[in-house]
Amino acid sequence: PLETHEVNATGTLLLLEQARAAGVRRVVSASSSAVYGDTPLPKHEGQVPQPKSPYAASKLAGEAYCAVYSRAYELPAVSLRYFNVFGPWQDPASEYAAVIPKFIRLALRGEPLPVHGDGLQSRDFTYVDNVVEANLLAAEAEVSGVALNVGAGARYTLLELVEHLQQILGRRLEVVHEPPRPGDVRHTQADVTLAARLIGYAPRVDFATGLARTVEAMRAAEEAAVRDG
What we know:
- The protein has about 230 residues and is of the alpha/beta class.
- It is built from seven helices and nine strands; from the N terminus they run H-E-H-E-E-H-E-E-E-H-E-E-H-E-H-H.
- The protein has a single domain, classed as NAD(P)-binding Rossmann-like Domain (Rossmann fold, 3-Layer(aba) Sandwich).
């Protein structure tokens, strides 16, 4: 928890202070849908955040600093609440690896996929191109001191994710159920109405398309690694 706070909360504060000193025109900060906790779906910016983990709390603190610097120091700052970003070049081997690259790597290697709990927990998986576009829009929009959702607006369970991977790969995948992880949010799904209104955000790449692109990129990377020894 201390390191998490140091990186996310203190790190954001230090960045804002340096930006203020350097006369930076605008700051776009990466927050997380984790700040919502288990609030009702779809999750929208008017809900009171209910963080369930030190990570989520530290992200919420970072948002608060962005809002304060917008008001107190007239440094335009926007926080974007990312919903389960995925795409090519994510590290599947990291201790903190996201579920999609982790599952794809295991599936390509013919290994079982570990699912924590019953697999019915759902996520608003958001392809990286959508997130990049949201950042570019937020960097130019005349809005500050707010937090905005950046998601696809749809949700899929982990078992549905496995089904999609089976369709793409054309074969059955083994699933191994493991104990639920403490602090995990049960469901996420973004309401992107506010982001659409304030910065013109609209997700262009849907889940199925993004997943297929990611599988192909990771398959090519795996084949290249084998070929190069």
